[in-house]
Design brief:
The structure holds 2 protein chains of 2 kinds. Chain A is α/β, with parallel strands linked by helices. Chain A has helices at residues 19-35, 61-72, 93-101, 117-124, 140-154, 172-183, 212-218, 240-247, 251-255, 277-280, 287-306, and strands spanning 50-55, 76-81, 107-112, 128-134, 161-165, 187-191, 207-209, 221-224, 262-264. In chain A, strands 7-6-5-8-9 form a 5-stranded parallel beta sheet, with helices on both faces. In chain A, helix 6 (172-183) links the parallel strand 5 (161-165) and strand 6 (187-191). In chain A, helix 2 packs across helix 11 (287-306) and helix 5 crosses helix 6. The chains are: A alpha/beta, B alpha/beta.
Chain lengths: 311, 181
């Protein structure tokens, strides 16, 4: 059993929470996973809470997953997408959020293209904030659901070997995953072309490997990241084809490994680039389990944050 | 702190046996009846009842589950209440079944109210009954009464009833705790 309450009022990043917090979230997520498999998948816990989902950057999975988690907890939900709002008319972030809060909103789930947007907001407004991805910085709920998925599949996270393959440089998923897995006692390796691995990444306590086969032979779990072309202002590798020949995971590589590993992907998948279709759809892939677990983990985060505020 | 033992050892065992016979009176061979223990403390009592019933009826197929009610409580965000949940394990269909909810102590009735809500998320039982080991009578906040009672106790709000089970706490005992006057 971990602690009974989270040590932080917001979930801005894995960096700001401790191992007890993570364990409490994962334990609570296991309870919610049972809840969402009942005939009636809803509990009344957050029926007096209003949550605003504010997305300044595109998202399908995360937005749907948060919205479903909020609805399963009986919260009232309002959605806001920057593309269809007054942000394009020049409104500032604080003004936008304060206007939303004036409508009596208790929690804000925010995705933003700039790193630290959540921290900035938390210093200026009263509502609790959940970071749903801030630029190339952190994506805490993704890391938590990845850790939860590993725990559900392998029984434990501590002592497991996890390799994160691909665009580490632009990936908030990679940073949050490294922090989360390290806090839970897993061994972590990053693998990718030199240009996509940050120079000082080893200071986070991770191994660095540039050979995919070696990395895969070392690990229990491979988390394959998408190449974030939208964040690349210069060329980091010659062509997508060359990238996928060197760092793409196909069935042949998977079958030739010494042991059976688990394949994860945070989505969206670029089939044929970082992972081939037959791998994505194989029984070693837990990509769709990750999506299911995402709802349970987000329910746990929202529930535990809400429990800190007495009425 | 003053302690008074309400039930222990053999007396507790006899009480459980008596409750089981009362259950059999109404539910015969438990073909269409299931036991549900309320987490966390009611689960121990439900285990005992289940074990005793199986022995009396020589039937290993009596269904028993555990129900966690944390997410259905009405005091969430109102006090330093418990937020950490326990697991619910109900591996059978309760639709159309006679459900016997089992808890150790009945006091305000709020837990049972939450349990009935939580139960309905699994389906629509034909009937729901309530069995408790200790009924702290005259202290209800809601109109809830048990069908089967181990022992009725008169107590005031400042007192506490503590039920210990050998498998969890080292001994079978029910005590009433009161602040020293």
């Amino acid at each position: 059993m971990g602690a009974e309450k989270l040590s932080s009022r917001h979930l801005l990043g894995i960096k700001d929470i401790n191992r007890n917090d993570i364990e409490l979230i994962l334990e609570t997520a296991a309870n919610f996973k049972e809840v969402i498999n009942r005939p009636i998948k809803k509990v009344p816990s957050l029926r007096d809470i209003t949550i605003a989902n504010i997305f300044f950057e595109n998202s399908t999975r995360t937005k749907l997953s948060f919205e479903l988690a909020e609805k399963r907890l009986s919260a009232d939900v309002i959605n806001f997408a920057a593309s269809s709002s007054s942000v394009s008319k020049g409104e500032t972030l604080i003004d936008t959020v304060n206007n939303i809060l004036a409508m009596k909103v208790d929690m804000v789930v925010m995705r933003h293209p700039y790193a630290g947007a959540g921290q900035f907001l938390s210093k200026h407004i009263n509502a609790q904030i959940v970071n749903a991805g801030d630029g190339a910085h952190e994506h805490p709920t993704q890391a938590l659901l990845d850790a939860f998925s590993i725990q559900q599949k392998l029984g434990d996270v501590a002592g497991k070997k996890v390799v994160i393959v691909g665009d580490i440089l632009h990936s908030r998923v990679a940073l949050s995953n490294i922090l989360c897995l390290r806090k839970l006692g897993a061994e972590v390796m990053v693998c990718g072309p030199t240009t996509l691995i940050p120079k000082h990444i080893a200071s986070l306590g991770v191994k660095v490997e540039h050979n995919l086969i070696k990395a895969l032979n070392w690990c229990d779990v491979a988390n394959m990241l998408r190449i974030q072309l939208e964040r690349m202002d210069i060329k980091y590798f010659p062509t997508s084809r060359e990238y996928s020949m060197m760092y793409g995971l196909n069935k042949q590589i998977l079958d030739n490994l010494d042991k059976e590993i688990i394949v994860m992907h945070p989505g969206p998948i670029n089939r044929g680039v970082e992972i081939t279709s037959d791998v994505a759809d194989s029984k070693q892939s837990i990509i769709l389990e990750q999506v299911e677990n995402g709802v349970a983990v987000r329910m746990a985060v929202l529930y535990l944050l809400a429990s800190q505020n007495d009425m | 702190m003053q302690k008074r033992t309400l039930l222990s050892g053999q007396k507790l065992q006899i009480t459980i046996k008596r409750l089981c016979h009362q259950l059999i009176e109404n539910h015969n061979n438990f073909n269409n009846s299931v036991l549900i223990g309320i987490q966390p403390r009611g689960a121990f009592f439900a285990d005992r009842v289940h074990h005793e019933l199986s022995a009396i009826l020589k039937n290993d197929h009596i269904q028993k589950g555990n129900l966690d009610i944390t997410f259905f409580r009405d005091d969430f965000r109102r006090k330093d209440g418990l937020v950490t949940a326990s697991s619910s394990t109900i591996d059978f269909i309760i639709e159309g079944k006679q459900v016997i909810l089992i808890d150790d102590v009945l006091w305000t009735g709020r837990t049972i109210r939450a349990a009935m809500d939580a139960l309905l998320a699994y389906g629509r039982p034909e009937r729901v009954e309530l069995m408790v080991l200790i009924d702290r009578r005259f202290s209800r906040h809601l109109p809830i009464e048990p069908n089967y009672v181990g022992l009725k106790v008169d107590s005031v709000d400042s007192q506490k009833v503590k039920v210990s089970w050998e498998e969890n706490d080292g001994e079978d005992k029910v005590i009433l705790l009161s602040e020293k006057q």
